[in-house]
Amino acid sequence: MLHTEQMLEQHASLESAQKQVEIALQELHKAQARLRRLETLYNPFSLNDVNAGMGMLEEQPESSLIERILHESAQRTGHVHKPRTKSSSYQFSGMHEIAVWDELEVDRFTEGHVLAHSLSEGIADVATAATQLRLALAQLNTLITQQMAQTVQIRNDALSLRAAPFHVLVARLRSAAQMITTSQKRDIQFEVSGEATEIDQDILDALANPFLELVYNSVTDSLIAAEAAQLPGAYAGRITLTARSNGNEVAIELGFSMPVPGGTIEALNNSIHHLRGSITPQRDSAEGITFHLRFPRSQGMVQGLLVRAGNQSVVVPFSQVHHIDYSKQESISERYDLNTLLGFPSARDISQPIHPWLILQEQAIRLAVRVDEIIGQVDLVMKPLAEYLRRPGITGTAIDGMGNVLLVIDLLELITQRDKVQKQNEPVKVFLPIGQVRFQNHPEPAYQKILIADDSVYMRQSVRQILERVGYTLYEAHDGVEALEQILEQPPDLLLLDIEMPNLNGFDLLTIIRANPLLSKLKTILLTSRSSDKHRQHALDLGARAFLTKPCPPDVLLEAVQSVLS
Predict the structure, then answer these.
(1) How many CB atoms lie within 10 A of CB 553?
(2) Most confident listed range (115-119, 272-276, 367-371)
């Protein structure tokens, strides 16, 4: 793997050398054009004015050869040669020159002609060299293309050595589920596609334990629910597994027809973040859920857009960009500027009035990031940053063919970090003692929307009765997935969230909210039966504005809602 990465790094240097050769060829063409212009100036037969040509001939000095011959003759004979005047040496008939000269003075006339002839020969030599260089450059381009294709083939072969088929993980998950269901005389249906898909062993190893724990807990809870409901038959549920490789990306889907225990996102989050992947939950059926995971096929390579922000060039991986917009006419939830996100001066190039927008897509929410220029596409080896150099939104570095260090950035993390910094001056942590608190002068409650997410119907109705008396607009969700769907469809002003819920628990939902740039602005109050300091601190670390425990007196709940909303 290291050798293939070095070969790919050499390709960047080859491309740089190729560009230098192309520049040299362009300069050669320019020099050739200048020589042709000089040829017209020095060619005595190309002058339009004959008198000007005569003046040039009269001013031409005698050649050194003639001078030496005449000088040696004068020394031997004592006779000094007197050349004829130019007027008597030349006669003109129209535009054609007829020369009458002393044979010893023939060099005086031909010297300019010889110079022009030599210049023409030099121009022809330059043209020949340019043609040869152009042919050599074409051959170099062909060799570079072949070298790159061979390098990619070698790297794909090397990747296959450290890859394993998806069915290796599927077999472990199926075996774990069957061990549980066999003892209960029930059956779990497995639907698998893409078992032969080759996946990096690091990805399979990182997902194995979280997937096994998720399958174990989901099947166990499903069996308990089936036994409690005394459901007939042996069918206990369905688990779907799908894997596919699309270019430089691997996609894995894990679905359940039954509710899954909360905490899935938290269990997978660390592994996914380490692998530079992403996870998206989506409702599969009335009670089921599917987790969509995406990972780069190779952890050491980055393929993306090379963009300019100010005077710096940075790399944006393709996996973050949905498409590019130059017209600024699309419906975008919120727009950002890359210079601002990176802390660069936001001076704009006046000569470039139109700046491209990188459109990011996260479920139903669309974000756009403006860049100064899109330079091109790159395929580089990414190097991790040292611990003391790591910053939020900077995933690594790469080196181009000129030796320039390029930052590889995570746009969503940069946006989230910016929003987090903007919140530092807000009163985000609210601690309220249980007791009698007056609540008056609520600011326009009828226009403020509150989403109540709790799997208990009793708790949802109790909270609704308390808040309806004041005049808030209320919505309900019975689990984390439904809460997420409603947040995306109609974002509330406040989320009242329970921790223990199926499919996505409160901590899972807070993790998703925190990772999404727009959802991170949502204000959240946790209302839960968990009262330990560990749960309280974890909720506040994930961005909760307040932490209340059940049963919560109405006045305490109303005061917390009023404080957070104001």
Answers:
(1) 15
(2) 367-371
